[in-house]
Amino acid sequence: MTMENISGYYLMPHPPIIIPDICKGEEKKIEATSLACNEIGREIADIKPDTIIVITPHGTMFSDAIAISNEERISGDLSQFRCANIKMDIPIDKEFNIKLGTACHLEGIASVLVDSSTLRKYKCNYELDHGTIVPLYFVNKYYNDYKLVHITYSMIGDINLYKFGMEIKKVAEELNRKVVIIASGDLSHKLKEEGSYSYSPYGKEFDKELLKNLENGDVVETFNMNKIMIEEAGQCGFNSNCYSF
Question: What is residue 92's three-state secondary structure?
Answer without folding.
Answer: strand
